[in-house]
Amino acid sequence: MKVLYRESHEWVAIDGKKAKVGISDHAQKELGDLVFINLPEVGAEVKAGETLCDVESVKAVSDLYAPVTGKVVAVNEELEGAPELINQDAMKAWICEIEVESVPDDLMDEEAYKKFIKG
Which of 10, 29, 61, 116 is the 20 to 30 Å CA partner of 36? Predict the structure, then answer.
């Protein structure tokens, strides 16, 4: 399984044609305590770089963007009642699973992402 990152701080763990999506640990720290997540719809067609869903923290509402193009095949319903799970372990608390059609070339591996967030 390969984990890649978008500049907008979403991660995607690609395993064959399936990919789990979440937000990076860096992003959840920047957002602060999450109080609500508006999960994407199962069956929704998503395009890389377009809005996937949004999260609400004590600071602001932030859009999350699809890191890959495909179809949402599952959502982590546990987050509906407990969005703070993302704050507890952002890499474990996946938001949705996408059946992948294509992966853009601009995603970063973990090393490149760490350099990116350090500026």
Answer: 116
**Which residues fall within 8 angstroms of residue 49, CB to CB, at 6 or more apart?**
6, 65, 66, 104
Which residues are registered as beta bridge partners of 98? Answer: 19, 72
d(CA 21, CA 14): 9
Q: Would the pTM count as exceeding 0.85?
A: yes
Domain assignment present for 108: no
CATH number at residue 8: 2.40.50.100
Distance CA 17, CA 3 (A): 14
Domain encompassing residue 9: 2-103
Residue 43 lies in a domain: yes
